[in-house]
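Record type: monomer structure entry
Structure origin: computed from sequence
Chain ID: A
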Amino acid sequence: MAREIVDIRKEEIINACEKLYQKSNFKDITIKSIGEETTFSRTSIYNYFQTKEEIFLALLKREYERWIDDLNEMYEKNFKMTKEVFADKLAHTVAKRKNLLKLLSMNMYDMEENSRMEELIEFKKAYGNAIKMVKKCVDKFFEKMSENEKEEFIFLFFPLMYGIYPYAEVTEKQKEAMQEADVPFKYLSIYEITYKGILKLLN
């Protein structure tokens, strides 16, 4: 099968997965339900992905690649930035990637554990490129930072991303439980959490 056809069909499968993920939980989505959203048979999916986790991993890979495009645009279109402006622009790129944050916070272990090594390696390349692109931005806009400070920022910022979604996207049931349990909690958006976190790390 021609590479172009393979890529088109993979993209259709990933799109179907993304569509379902907008309204269903990871555990409720199956290969069958993904197949029903495509134009070819469910069994044909196995020609491209062996598990649903591989499909989700491919979706996450695509999210990273789209985020990299946004980061590259931020890099190319700006010459200088204060910490506040950098935090604002970087936080806006993160806020656009809700699927990325949701997958990171909920399903990383399952996706990686139940994917073939070659699929995992392809994903890790995209993840690694995202790290390199953020580092490239830090290098450009904060020349006076030491290499140790830059590395510390990178390796604290990326783990921060794993915790953003659960704090920003809270259900009514969760809110009610927090109130009943008398747990103090301040509700912030994805942008607000990311912006404040970036500023803390830069300072």
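Annotation 1: The CA atoms of residues 94 and 191 lie 7 Å apart.
Annotation 2: The first helix runs from residue 3 to 21.
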